[in-house]
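Milestone M4 deliverable, item 7.
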Amino acid sequence: RRFDAPAPDFVGLECEGRVIIPRLRYARGFFQRAIGLIGRRDLPDGDGLCFEGCQSVHTAFMRFPIDVLF
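Output delivered:
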């Protein structure tokens, strides 16, 4: 997929034919990216949040651990 093309709201992330994240949501725009997962109590199994073009991620004020893929 081209990065300049509009992304759908939810997609599945696959690697070598295996589904890694069934429900991946894109954080678009400044506020969606700034808020991210702050304020959520958890992230359900199979859910993910994608920040395209980020070079770093912070976990300040988060209530649960996360895995980060670059």
